[in-house]
Amino acid sequence: MSGLPDIDVDDWRKNTHYAGGYDEESDVIQWFWDVVSSFDRKECILLLQFVTGSSRVPHGGFANLSGSNETQNFCIARVDLSNNPNSLPTASTCFNMLKLPQYPSKEVLCDRLSVALHYGSQGFEFV
After folding, report:
1. What is the rounded distance in angstroms from the CA atom of residue 64 to the CA atom of residue 73?
2. CB environment 46-65: b (16+ within 10 A), e (fewer)
3. Percentage of residues in the chain with pLDDT exceeding 90?
4. Which of 70, 77, 101 has its CA nearest to residue 18?
5. Active site residue 44
6. What does each C-alpha distance from 34 to 44, 94, 124 come to in angstroms?
7. How many angstroms separate the CA atoms of 2 and 64, rounded?
């Protein structure tokens, strides 16, 4: 069987933890899940690859995401913009962690996340 894997955004959200001052009710978190819910399958896979290093959901769903040595749920951690509204989200793939700046609007979050996924998901290369 070929094609792109299905990603259940509701399962992903249900198995997410928050850190650094974010919680499920934070505006930025609500915007994040609104944006992710609007993603097509390819964009969801890019996000999954960006934050976990894998383009596949483990058997059993997001509750079974693996970290460096054990099951490690997806986590969204707040980071400061450091007076730079163009800061991009970053990730720690060993910990399934998205480091998401506290953007001032849903539109800015969507733009910065899109840039990170489309231009930052391929890793780095020395030339």
Report:
1. 7
2. bbbbbbbeebebeeeebeeb
3. 65
4. 77
5. no
6. 12, 25, 29
7. 23
Q: Which of 44, 75, 94, 110 is catalytic?
A: 94
Residue with tokens 């991009």: 88
What span, in angstroms and rounded, lies between the C-alpha atoms of 47 and 32?
11
pLDDT above 70: residue 124? no
Rounded to two decimals, the pTM is: 0.88
Please give the pLDDT value at position 71: 79
Number of CB atoms found within 10 A of residue 111's CB: 15
What token pair was written down for 22? 């974010």
